[in-house]
Amino acid sequence: MTDKNQRVSRRRFIGGAAVAGAATLAMPEVSRAETATLKMQGSWAPGDIFNDYAMQLVDTINDLGGSRLKIDYLTVGAVVKTNEVQDAVSNGVLDAGHLVPAYWYGKNRAASLFGTGPCFGWDTHGVLAWFYGPGKDLYKELTQDILGLNIVGWFHMPQSPQPLGWFNKEITSIDDMQNLKYRTVGLAANVMQELGCKVTQLPGGEIVPAMEKHVIDAFEYSNPTSDFRFGAPDVAKYYMLSSYHQANECLEFEINKDRWNGLAQEQQAIINHSVQAANSTNLQLAYSSYADYLQQIKEAGVTVKRTPQSVLSAQLDAWDKVAAQYGQDAFFQKVIDSQREFAKNRAYCNIMMNNDFALAYTHYFGDEQPLEL
Fold it and tell me: What is the pTM of this model?
């Protein structure tokens, strides 16, 4: 390039930059969203890892929101009780809430299908994919149209299958489940009743006292971290892992619909993307935490076992009976049909593509730390 051409190119560049600069000065890209602060309550005690998950979501929203959007987060009981969170959000007592559908399925049994429904061969990642596909409209139909709730909601943190639970004897067959006074929530209560248990639905904070007073014989809550932190190893000595009673649960984030509609588009975008980001931050925390606490559970003298295949098969049969019973409700059946249709090919693909991780684990660690299957 000649010197003359270089001078022309520089003049064009400088001139163009000057025009762009003038346009920037004339029309600055400044946010037009007013600062919004949302009062949000979780359903979790400060020491529960579910509270950590909620705070990770809140931190992401607050980091991205800067001075435009803030979440003022409160733990359970600060304003309302656990089973009152959704109504408080709908009524505007709270702007937002963090919970699970099992806490409000008493309003409509189909609510449990959004978190503690049958396992159609898929994992919770598949359920989350369904929710952000056809499930989103069904959730809106249930919450807004059928129940008349003034909320909008999202799901995040696809959880691991919840353990069968804590017992004071090893569960070797379905016979060992007969007449056990057992704690669970959601449609899992119906499933465990079909297996012969006498089910009691209790909030998490009442589980250990109930075991100490022999009000219940056994229970499930959620995961090794939560279970250890609230003292499960002090009241039961057998921990049975793997179960279909709550195999696909996610966490739920709700916002008052009027409050949501009053937010600027960019504020809504921050919330939408923050919920998606929480899937990663939550899972990263869970991956290490559950493993570490499972080892602590074993070190506390608890015998850790996998649930026998015969019990798992009986659970699937129990789910069939529960689904048929509540499937008489048209909307319940509509959700079941949507999930089965969505899961069939996707679960097949996932199962075919996944490795046998137990085989690889045993190959590398079998002599050092035998894996019971």
Answer: 0.88
